[in-house]
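quick one: D-xylitol-5-phosphate bound model?
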Amino acid sequence: MKKIKIAPSMLSSDFSRLGEEVRKISEAGADMIHFDVMDGHFVPNITFGPMVIGSVRKFSSLVFDTHLMISDPGKYWKAFADTGSDIIGVHIETEMDHKSIIKDIQQYGKKACIVINPPTNIEKIYPFLEQVEQVLVMSVNPGFGGQKFMPEALPKIESLAGIKARKNLGFEIQVDGGINEETARISKEAGAEILVAGSYIFKNPDYKKPIESLR
Ligand code: DX5
Ligand code: ZN
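yep, here:
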């Protein structure tokens, strides 16, 4: 079976020493690093922008997976690409021409991810599945770490896994929100290939253990 990838979300890390945290999580066996960018508009919380992510780029050689929870990703994605993000995730719920922004991100040499919130119908992202490298299924309403996993995500993951297999598509299926040992297990059973986890990993002082237990 294909190895499950773990993407720790820096949202639950100690921001006062973000660079060290990025280094530590990379050494603990993470496969990629997930950055939650929030603008206080698309979601009711504010985190950090491209300059902060750029400032910690030198602390890790892992893939930087940037989850843009912002209302206008079209205006800002390039700033994230320029400061070291490798994968750029845009929400289907934003008002924009998704097809053309995804194409722009890829032509700029980066990978594109389409993200879908719990209340949004999975069919909304079907038109992009042949185009993107990654699909992110939210299993909480975005904005905060430490929330409870919403099982509504599971049939979405199953349906994506089915389409991927049937059409032999290349996108990877990622799940984000409320991931712990139990919800990791059911997400993997449903077909998730990349698990994003914040609080579950960072609450343990030894990051290696939770990363291993999620796999
Ligand atoms: C939620 C973020 C998640 C979050 C996950 O808005 O997209 O990445 O940090 O945190 P946990 O694992 O604590 O639910
Ligand atoms: Zn996220």
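Residues 5-214 form a domain with the TIM Barrel fold (CATH 3.20.20.70).
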